[in-house]
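Think of the structure tokens as a kind of shorthand, similar to the way a musician reads notation: each symbol stands for something richer, in this case the local conformation of the backbone. In the example below we present two proteins back to back. Begin with the first one, reading the sequence and then the tokens, and try to describe in your own words what changes along the chain.
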Amino acid sequence: MRARPITLAAALIACQSGEKKGQSDSAFALLQQRGESVMGVDQYTSQHVFEPLANGGRIILQRKEDDISGTATIRAHMRTIAAAFSKGDFALPGVVHAMSNVPGTAEMKELRSEISYTPRDLPRGGEVVIASNNPKAVAAIHDFLAFQRMDHRAGMHME
């Protein structure tokens, strides 16, 4: 059973120590480790999707197999990031990606009053639907999702 996502400070400390799960690509392994610390679920047994949509996009995270505890943890995380992002707080993606300014987030923070973040439950996890009618905000959302897709080595659709 996995614990719920931990605080930002605890995630930073956890990411500075620990093993890399035997991956040959140490940068990706560290990303996965930071992701697990922040999101509360093993990143290797979960699947991310970062899908652009005409008016924004969506972030999907689901367990690859049935896991009641992991599913609940993901759903709580999706509600947490939807609330944080709506306030212009992108600290958690910064921790996961070990950078202070994840692409797209400066604009998303600036335009936060024109962007909605809606968490939804999905089988084995959840999603956050990000939407805006402002073309500049949509472009920033797309930049954010493209970076996430690349860094997480994730797709735009479920496998």
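Once you have a description of the first chain, move to the second and do the same.
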Amino acid sequence: MDIKRVLVVLPHPDDEVFPMSGTLARLIDAGARVTYVCLTLGELGRNLGNPPFANRVTLPAVRRQELEASCQVLGIEDLRLWGYHDKTIEFEPWGPLDERIQAVIREVRPDQVYTFYPGYGVHPDHNACGAAVVRAVQGLPESERPMVLCAAGFQESPGRPPDIVNDIRPVLRRKLGALHAHSSQFALLGYTEKRPEEDPAFMERVVTERFWIYRFGQ
């Protein structure tokens, strides 16, 4: 399948890094244009850097800058920030959110849409975001529906093996660059200090990206 246009819909800055940044980098290298819709600025994220360099007032701006830096590393040129409140996506009225996602799908006309698998994204915002994407796509005529590729939590599975497993070693340095860009969130966890070749568990997490094709009506 020749992928020319890709839409990514995720709730927080940094959600792209572990589940799909390598895949997106590979798609971009192959000529695809990626539009990334980020629903919030992650202003309620628990981490403020290590040592802390942000606070509750400055964190939204910091995370926006980090996301822009991550996109630059990966080659994503079309980043859209929708400004919803962090940790409230599950409470957003379905109609307006679904219609907004449908509108960007009709505008971008993606071959593929990437999001979280509803119910298997670990975080309530992840699950609510994925559910909104599924509803939006399902509301389109079948002939207009793009393929929806869903990521799950690292140790989560929607009851079946993934449909696509990507080894992203060829673009590993760019994935690590995206990870380093989000230093306010990842430094405290030690991720920005890890050398993947020296940590097999970390290596497994970063080099393999798994996706489930959402099967409508099943």
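Compare your description with these statements about the second chain. The chain has a mean pLDDT of 92.
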